[in-house]
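dumping this here before i forget
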Amino acid sequence: MQFEEKEITVREIKSNSVISKTNLPTGDYCVNPYTGCIHACKYCYASFMNRFSGHNEPWGSYLDVKTWPCILNPKKYDGKELIIGSVTDPYNPFEEKFERTKRLLLELRGTNAKITIITKSDLVARDLDIIKNFPNICVAFSINTLDENFKNDMDSAVSIERRLRAMKTFYENKIRTACFISPIFPQITNVQAIMDTVIHQCNFIWLENLNLRGEYKAKILKYIAERYPELVPLYDEIYRKNDNQYWVELAAELQNFCKDRGLIYVVDNGKLVRPFNEPPVVVNFFYHSKIKQSAKRRKD
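structure:
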């Protein structure tokens, strides 16, 4: 397995609770059975957790396995939105051994909360029979490329092929699925090709742009210079000069693409749900306020 190919610091820690309130616009609570993530995604915003976890190791080289008091009253989360995996992958390879996420799901049985699981792993299929018990759940698979070579450059998670296969399994079992196209790398991520690939096996397609900040900004820009030198001017415009025009134009292209495919396209509204067998809802989460303002100025 991939995690055996590199040294990983693993420790078990006690946590007062595995469920935390969040300010994220898409949920009421975040649920993270682990701290750290060994997928080691080069673009991962969650690397900021190093500041709070007491780790000096590089992001991707450690994993804290949480234990917590049993969730005795899962019904208190009825009507709330729980995001499992906001700053870790709940189905990282060590989940096969420690089963923290499996325990979490077993403890949450009986709740009528809206639950979203976000993962890059097909290990989630192990818990298919448990997940079936939740009336309002969605399994979201992060896929930002169909190119396995680029995927391998960016993370240590399972192949795109395995993610797509797992997504199809859940969809065929009538469990809502999402394809989370994130992050979109300018001129590298073929968003339309991914959408065409998943259109018949998911209920949602979520779009999120590549944001570069912190220590990984320099790493990504160095990677672009080395592997895609022809894109350096574009990345300089976006990430050094803060020009949002690329995202404005991409949003317009994707809106037209959705119209041609008969897909509903919405901005920053992940709450729209259609009947299960209807085509997926496409939600653009990168059309934030600055880009909106830029688009409005150009329109005026």
